[in-house]
Amino acid sequence: MAGKSTFLRQNALILLMGQIGSFVPAESARLGIADRIFCRVGASDNLARGESTFLVEMNETAHILRQATRQSLVIMDEVGRGTSTQDGLSIAWAVSDYILDHLQCRTFFATHFHELSDLKHKGMVNLSLQVSEEDGEILFLNKVIEGPSNNSYGIHVAQIAGIPDEVIFRAGEILDQIQQSSSGLNISANSSNRKGSRKMASGGFQRGLFGQDEMVLQEIKHLDLNTCTPIEALNHLSRMQKHLKE
To answer: Cα angle at 89 between 103 and 138, to 5 degrees?
Structure first.
């Protein structure tokens, strides 16, 4: 709603227009030449080939990481959002690390993972779309500013879409409970000894969406005992025990 996806597409189109000799919406522009433009935006599945939305996303991401060069332009929107919070965050972090340290191409990487906005790298600039918030009401200003956003405003967007007020109120209550009770993600940057590696800003990671106890409860709730073999049940139990000990 703030316009980040539009901002990504806009920059790719401006580069394409400039490279073919068209006018671009600027008084002056220094764009450079790109050999290709790679795009990982949007969510769709491929049921005919048995591919889930997340698999399609990963296929496209893999193609970019294997085919892009230092002269390419890459736009990526919400990498890792099609799976669990911790898995998605880990993938998004690793992908951005790879682009920064190996590909080193011009990239627009949009994410809702606030943890990633705390990372610092000499080849990275952190931008966000400005939002005005007053008395619980928000206004998207369609203006790009330096620094991360303070919020994702997902519940506000749900309200704009017409979700019943009772659901919106309950969602706000649940969000407050999660933010107050969830444990932090104790992840450290393993690439600290690499040239140009990412480093955490002060404060470290923000809280994860769920703590280990909540994750175990969710796994138990969704475990299908009717189709689970004894050895699979033991493996599930062993993994849950490991999570709780951690």
So the answer is: 105
DSSP H or E stretch at residue 119:
strand 119-120
Characterize 117-136 residue by residue with b for buried, 16 or more Cβ atoms within 10 angstroms of its Cβ, and e for exposed: bbbebeeeeebbbebeeeee
Mean pLDDT on 200-229: 58
Reading the block at residue 226, the tokens are 């009717």
Helix (H) or strand (E) holding 146: strand 137-146
pTM: 0.68
Q: How far lies 107's CA from each of 83, 126, 228, in Å?
A: 23, 12, 44
Q: Is the dihedral of CA 168, 210, 188, 89 positive or negative?
A: negative
**Section 96-125 average pLDDT:** 90
pLDDT, tens digit, for every residue of 53-105?
Answer: 888 899 999 999 999 999 999 999 989 888 888 899 999 999 999 999 999 99
Q: What is the DSSP letter of 205?
A: P
pLDDT in tens, 226-239: 777 787 778 778 77
Distances 45 to 55, 61, 85, 232, 246 between C-alpha atoms, Å: 8, 14, 20, 29, 35
Spatial distance between the Cα atoms of 106 and 71, rounded to a whole number of angstroms? 8
